[in-house]
Structures are given as structure tokens and as C-alpha cells.
Design a protein that fits this description.
239 residues; mainly alpha; 8 helices; 74% helix; globular
Length: 239
């Protein structure tokens, strides 16, 4: 857990010294009862919970058709890859958000993620793996070989990790302290509790619908800001 906090500190290096980073966290959470900060933190928490569970379900479903020993290896690879990718994307997220047009692209990407999640909430049955609860209803087709499963998991992890980091950054863009804590949570939940989250999302489907609504809201907000933001909006290219 200490490593997670150290990673988040590095991720926010462009915000200043460690003292400045801590100041951002203290400032945002000392004002957490303000409507904007509370809304940002609630959105970040729901995004992290839903996407950690979704990541676990997809990885489990892709590995479902393999023998038990290979299946466990693929699931372990998937979890480790997701952790590494979330940390890697977190390291550069603040810089990425300063690129003109990227907020708009991120919003469009999250809309596609929302559509994919909506389809997963109305699933077709699949084999499922005993290691991950809920993946039997994912509708994701399991891979036929260890190499194919490992490759599919790697591709899925890249997409889902980028989705997670962009969504958190979009939700907490005006609250750097909440952004840092959100990135810590995204890594911690994926590494520690993803399978537990997947089980509860499967049992209580309303959690997934609330999370989906939050992601759609963040996507629409990012698309809007991606057009009109005076620093990184698309319209700045025409001024």
C-alpha cells in the first residue's frame, strides 16, 4: 500500500513538490463537503469500483476455456498487467490532459466504453471461470489457447486501464488532490479487491447501472470541455 501512495505522488509530479502534492490533497479533502469536491469524489469512487470489477470479469471470461493451471496464470498476468498499466498511465495523465484534443478523444472513448458496458449488462452466457464471480454472464468469448488468452488479456488491459485513468482524470480535473487519491484507489482496487467487486456487481446490478450513468456523465462533460476549454479545447485551434 505504501508503494501505491509513492506511485501516486510520482504521478502528480507536475503539480509541484511532495509538499505541494500533499497540499492539494489536504485542500480538496478539507473542502470535501463542497458540492463540486463531493461530486468529483463520488464520481471517481464509482468509476474505480465499476471499472475494477469490469476488468476482472473480462480477464476471467477470456481465460475461462483454458485448463485450470493455465487459467490461473492468465488471470494473474491480467491482474499484474492491469496494475502496471494503470500506474504507467497515471504517471503521465496530467501531462496527457494538457494535449489539445485529448480530452475530447477521451470523452468519445468513454462513450464507447459506456456502450460496451451497456451490452455487458444484457449479456449472453459464456463458460466463465471459477476464479472470477460473474464472468459467466459477460458475453466475452473465451480464448482457445494460452497464448491467445494472454494476448487478448493484454489488449483488453491496455484499453480498460486507459479508460479508467482518463475517466478519473476527467471526473476530478479541477480537484488535483482528489485526482491523486482516485489514481491510488484505481490501482488498489484492481490489485486487492477486483474479484470481490465483480461478485457484488453481478449480485447487485443497480451498482453497475449507477456506475454506467456516472461514466456517461463524465464522457459528455469531457466532450463538452474538449470543445470549449480555453487551453486544450479543439476550438483553440481555430482562434
Amino acid at each position: 500500500m505504501i508503494d501505491l501512495f509513492a506511485t501516486a505522488a510520482v504521478a502528480a509530479q507536475d503539480m509541484g513538490s511532495p509538499a505541494d502534492i500533499w497540499g492539494h490533497i489536504v485542500h480538496d479533502f478539507s473542502n470535501i463537503t463542497s458540492p463540486s469536491a463531493l461530486a468529483a469524489f463520488g464520481q471517481v469512487l464509482m468509476i474505480d469500483i465499476l471499472l475494477a470489477g469490469d476488468n476482472a470479469i473480462v480477464v476471467g471470461a477470456l481465460a475461462a476455456g483454458l485448463p485450470a493451471a493455465q487459467r490461473k496464470k492468465v488471470i494473474l498476468i491480467g491482474i499484474i498487467a492491469a496494475l502496471v498499466l494503470r500506474i504507467g498511465f497515471a504517471l503521465v495523465v496530467s501531462q496527457l490532459m494538457q494535449i489539445v484534443g485529448l480530452i475530447l478523444a477521451g470523452g468519445l472513448l468513454l462513450l464507447w466504453v459506456s456502450w460496451k458496458m451497456w451490452r455487458e449488462l444484457h449479456p449472453a452466457g459464456s463458460a466463465g471461470s471459477p476464479e472470477v464471480d460473474g464472468d459467466q454472464d459477460s458475453g466475452v468469448r473465451s480464448a482457445k489457447s494460452f497464448a491467445a488468452a494472454a494476448w487478448a488479456v493484454a489488449v483488453a488491459d491496455v484499453s480498460m486501464s486507459l479508460d479508467n485513468v482518463l475517466a478519473v482524470a476527467g471526473a476530478a480535473r479541477d480537484h488535483p488532490g482528489i485526482l491523486i487519491i482516485g489514481l491510488i484507489l484505481s490501482v488498489a482496487l484492481m490489485g486487492i479487491a477486483a474479484n470481490i467487486i465483480a461478485k457484488y456487481i453481478e449480485r447487485f446490478r443497480w451498482i453497475a447501472y449507477i456506475g454506467l450513468a456516472v461514466i456517461i456523465y463524465v464522457a459528455v462533460k469531457m466532450i463538452y470541455e474538449g470543445f470549449i476549454d480555453h487551453q486544450v479545447g479543439i476550438l483553440t485551434l481555430f482562434n
